[in-house]
Amino acid sequence: MITPKAKAGSSIKTKTGDWKNQFPEINSEKCIKCGICQSICPEGILGKKGEVPKPDLNYCKGCGLCASICPVKAIEMKRVDSDE
């Protein structure tokens, strides 16, 4: 199958499917909506700045950059359950 070329850093055509082994889980009570995680995400899957991030797990690569950069540790990387 031939797919159109996507722009560099665009998540539109880079759907992960089920190959990632971890994903971000965001604690909305701890989140201060600073937007740092949204700006560091290489796929831009965390939504709009100024809002609690809502990761689009269809495009998340599971890299963990968002969790490592969060100043209040509101993001935890969870392992994907292989039984799903």
Question: Could you give a short description of this structure?
Answer:
This protein has 84 residues and is mostly loops. It has helices at residues 36-40, 65-69, and strands at residues 22-26, 75-79.
Beta strand %: 5-15%
Order of helices and strands: EHHE
Unreliable runs, pLDDT <50, ≥5 residues? 1-8
Terminal Cα span: 27 Å
Question: Could you name the CATH topology?
Answer: Alpha-Beta Plaits
Summarize the structure in words:
- The chain has a single domain, classed as Alpha-Beta Plaits (2-Layer Sandwich).
- The protein is 12% helix and 12% strand.
- It has two helices and two strands.
- Strands 1-2 form a two-stranded antiparallel sheet.
- The longest helix has 5 residues, at 36-40.
- Residues 1-8 have low confidence and may be disordered.
Task: Summarize the helices and strands and which ones pair or pack.
Layout: E1 22-26, H1 36-40, H2 65-69, E2 75-79
Antiparallel strand pairs: 1-2
Highlighted features:
84 residues; little secondary structure; two-stranded antiparallel ribbon; 2 strands; 12% strand
